[in-house]
Amino acid sequence: MPEGEPALEVRNLCKEFPVHRGGILRRQAGALRAVDDVSFSLARGEALGVVGESGCGKSTLARLLLGLEKPTAGQVIFGGRNLFELNAQQLRAARRRIQIVLQDPYTSLNPRMTIGEALNEAFEIHPGLCPKNRRQARVQELLEMVGLSGDFARRYPHQFSGGQRQRVGVARALAVGPEILVCDEPVSSLDVSAQAQILSLLRNLQRELSITYVFIAHDLSVVRYVSDRIAVMYLGRIVEVGDKEEVCSHPSHPYTQALFSAAPIPDPTLRGVRQRIVLQGDVPSPIDHPSGCRFRPRCWKAEDICQQVEPALHGVTGSCLQAACHFATPQAPHLAADRERA
Amino acid sequence: MKQLPFDRRPKEGQPPAQGAILEVKDLAVEFRLRDRTVHAVNGVSWSLGQSETLAVLGESGSGKSVMAHAIMGTLSSARAKVTAGEVWFAGRDLLKMPERERRRVRGRKIGIIFQDSLSALNPVFTVSNQIGEMFRFHAGMPRRAAQQAAVGLMERVGIPGARRRANAYPHEFSGGMRQRIMIAMALALEPDVLIADEPTTALDVTVQAQIMELLRSLQQEMGMGLVLITHDLGVVADMADRIIVMYAGRAVEESPVRDLYRAPAHPYTVGLLQSVPRLDRAEDDLRPIGGAPPDMTTVAPGCPFRPRCWLAAEVCDHERPPLLGVGEGRASACHFSHAVLEGTAGARG
Predict the structure, then answer these.
(1) Which of A67, A341, B190, B281 is 20 to 30 Å from the Cα of A29, by its Cα?
(2) The pTM is what?
(3) ∠ at Cα B288 (A113, A276), nearest 5°?
C-alpha cells in the first residue's frame, strides 16, 4: 500500500434495510444486509475497481461513500473525519470533494436545463469555486476536457447521444474539482464504441488530474481497464481484493475464479480451451443468507467448515491477495484444468 | 488477393442455394414517422445453414433487432414497413405468405427469444400454461397432455423443481430462470431455426454462462440453426460459426468467426475489436472509434462509416462500397477491404 495519509478510508461499513411483511400492520420481518462489514483504504490517485453481480451491494456502497445513505454501522473517513459525523455545512463542503458519475446520465440531467446551465449550477452551489465572470469560460473548458465542443453548452440533454450524455455526466462531476470520483456502472448502458470512448476519457482524466477513483461495474474487463486494485463483492461482502493484475492472473477465491471463467473473451481460439466453471443457481436472496460462508451453496469446494464458520478476509498464502475463503488457492483462470464442475 | 464474386444471392424469386435453411435477401425495413422516415434496415442478405450458428453483431440502431422482427413478421408498429426483400424458408418466401400460413411457421418452425423475458411473458398466466399453449395451438394437444409436456420441457431447460413450479407466474422466477422459460417456449416444437435476440444481455455473467451453455447443448441435440443477435464480441467468439457485422442498417462484413478476429476486413470491425477492454491481456490501450453512428433518416450517398473512418478517401464520399468477397467465405463493404485485411491500410490515427 502506498505511504501517506489515505485519500479515503472505509471502516467496517454496514448497511441494513428493514424488510416488512404484512398489509396494514406492517411488521419488520427481517433485514436485508446490502453492505456487510466492508473495509478498504485508497491512496491519493489510486483507482479501486469494485466488481460484482446484481444484488451484491455495490451501488449501496456507492451511495454510502457519498453520504447519500446513512450506514447501520461503520465509518467513511475522508480528510481525517468521519463523513457521517459532519454537520450539514461540513457535509456540503465534503461533497464538493467527492463526486459521482451515474449509469444513466439522462435521468440525472434536468431535461429543461441546457448543459451550460447544469454545469453552472455547480458554481452556484459552491460560489467560492469560480468567480462569476469566469464561469462561462470554465464551462467551455470543462466541456472541452471531456471531449465535447464548447458550444454544446447551449444544447439540452435530449440533443445528445448516450455517449455524449455520459461525457456531460463526467464534466458535471468534475465541475467542482473533486478529489474522489465514484463511478457507478458508468458505461454499462453504452454501446461498445461509446463505452471505449468513456473508458479512455476516464483513464486519461485520472492520469492528468490524479483523481482517486472508486469504479463500480459488473464487467470484469471494464474494471480491469481502469483500476489499480480490484475488490470482488458477493452478497454485501468483499470476498477478494488486491492488485488488479494479480486478481486477473491468479484469482484465489472460487467466486472470482467462476466470475472470470464465465466472462466471455473476444477470442474464438480460446473456445473449448478455457476452463469453464458454470455455477449452479442464481445469487441467493440477500435477506436470509446461508450460515457460514455465503458462497457455499454455489461453491464446488464447500466442506463442513464452510457451513459453520464464515471465512474472514485474510492474506492468501503464495499471493499478495486477500480472500474470504477457507480454501483460497491462487490459480490462473484461462487454462483448461481438470476440475470437476460443481 | 484476387477479387472473388460474392453475389451468392440467387436470382429474385428463386428458392435459396442448397444447404441453407433460412435465407434473407436484400431485406429493407423503414419506419415512416410523421415528418421523416427512418431507414432501419437497408438491403441485408445472408443465409443460415443447417445446425449453423450465425452471429449478427451490431450496436444499437444498427437494425439487427428490426431485422429479426421483419423475419418473424412481428414488426409491432404500424409505421414499420418491409419495403423490399425476401425471406426464404423451406422453399417459400415468408414475406409473400398470407398471415394465416405464416402464423404456422412462426413458433413452430422458427422460434425466437428476446432480451427482456419479463415483458415477453404474459404476467397473468402460469408458465406451464404459456409453454403448454405452444402444444395446444400448434400441435392441437389436449390441455392436460400439453401441461405434462410443458413440465417435461421445463426440466429439459434446467429449471429446478419443474413440477412444483409449473403453476407459478413469471414474476416468481429470477431473470435467468425466466430466460430458460422463454427458451422452453421457443423450442417446444423443435423448430428448425431459433432466433435469439440479445438473449443474455440483461443477465449477470455467471447466469449468462449458464444460458449460453444451455443454448449450445440444445442446439447440438436438436440440430437447429441459430441466429444469435448480439452486441457482445465475447459472446460471438464463444458461440458462433459465422458472423455478420451490421452498421447503419447494412451488413458491412461477413466472415467465419475465427478469421474475423484474426484479421478483420472492414475498418468498423477493426475499430470494434480495438474498443473492447480485454480480460485475457494485461494493459492494452483502447482505441475507440470517434464520433457517433449516422442519422438514419437520411440516406447519404457514399459509405455510411466514412465520417468515423481513418481511411476515408474521396471515393468514399460519393460511392457506396458494395459487400464484395475478400477471401474464402469472407466479404467486406469497404473500398479498401483488401488493404485492411492484409494490414497494409496504415495505422489507425
Answers:
(1) A67
(2) 0.89
(3) 110
